[in-house]
Amino acid sequence: MVLCSKSTFQPTTCPTMPSYNPCPNGYTYHTSTTQCYRIYNGSGLTFDLAENKCKEDGGHLASIHSQEENYFLTDIGFNGNPSATVWIGIHYANNAYQWIDGTAVNYTNWGGEVDTYRFTCGYIHSGYFTDVSGDWFGYWDNNGGCTNTQITYIIWVMWPQDV
């Protein structure tokens, strides 16, 4: 499965809440981020192939900038599946984790130690994880690396798209 997202932000003089879903068919709108998100059941896709699928739709693998957004994406990404994993757009490059869409990494939810030596692409786990640091929900992991093909993905897309 893949989780991608699109931004629907359009500058206006007076922000208004849409009374309808402004996203393309198959996408879920999130009011806090003004983004559209879609889950793809992309079994067999590596991190790079999942990102390419998102680009075909005009978006990227989802970037996450708050706990609230992480919970939202965990909810739509797993839909009750207690053992699912979903690619997100975080990857290790130039000695730091970066979002594939170029936005700042200002929030993380890694569950335990992060192995940047062998595994450089991140994904979300549904369900809970407990370690010495506490309890984690929708925690991130990178075990298995960028070539793991047992992960679905979330796309975010900007909508409406510029023509």
UniProtKB/TrEMBL annotation:
InterPro entries per record: C-type_lectin-like (IPR001304), C-type_lectin-like/link_sf (IPR016186), C-type_lectin/snaclec_domain (IPR050111), CTDL_fold (IPR016187)
Residue intervals of the C-type lectin domain: 32-136
Annotated SMART domains: CLECT
Gene3D superfamilies: Mannose-Binding Protein A, subunit A
One Pfam family cited in the UniProt record for this chain: Lectin_C
Protein name: C-type lectin domain-containing protein
Protein's organism: Acrobeloides nanus
